[in-house]
Amino acid sequence: MKGVKNHFQEEAEIFDGLIRTLIPHYQEMIEALTMILPFHSQEHAKILDLGCGTGNVSLAIKKRFPQVEITCLDLAENMIQNTRYKLAEYSDVNYLVGDLRDLEAVAEYDAVVSSLAIHHLSRQEQRALYTQIYTALKEGGVFYNADNLLSSSEHLNQLYLKKWKEFMFQHHTPEEVETVWLARHHQEDNPQPLQDHLNWLKEAGFQNLDVVWKHYYFGVYGGRK
Ligand SMILES: C[S@@+](CC[C@H](N)C(=O)[O-])C[C@H]1O[C@@H](n2cnc3c(N)ncnc32)[C@H](O)[C@@H]1O
Asked: Which of 78, 98, 122, 200 could bridge 12 with an S-S bond, Cβ 3.0-4.6 Å?
């Protein structure tokens, strides 16, 4: 996890440009994650953004639901710093430097969201996190995550990788994709099968599970407490 933190500390300034060259349909995925929140436009809901990075998800949420109170949590101070700048015009935003694995809230949030962060945890930590998120939600609260998602079939996993590489090749040389981005992916990321995520969410108590948006390796899924 130290490597993950250091990388994001260093990359905070260039993150917003870079992420759009590495994740296909990044903006559309964030929009999907945002628009599914079951609030009316002026609702005073409490939301937690786990692994907020430079605040792109929180910003999209604030634009759609200006009255919500958001807590932005991230391991890397530099990422949080960028979130602060980006959301400076909004009140009701809390900034926390911390590890999402230490989440101890009880019935505090109407929604917990996350994007491209949970795959950094080990398989067991991802499973355990769903119970922590369930506890952190109020009754009827929702959790949605946008992330890398493996298939349960090796054939599809190969296809997902091929499609992902094709996208990155549009912005980076094949050598950079292999030696930097895929090398880092193999070293620091632990994507898990979508089916396992859904099983773990069910096991934690979530209902109304659904996959809201999907593009090969990437998807948005979640459910309601
Ligand atoms: C790829 S970035 C995604 C940022 C943002 N959610 C987005 O979609 O633009 C992953 C973020 O997760 C954070 N992160 C990774 N592991 C974390 C952990 N255990 N606790 C809190 N934040 C974590 C990193 O510091 C980084 O800012």
From this structure: 78
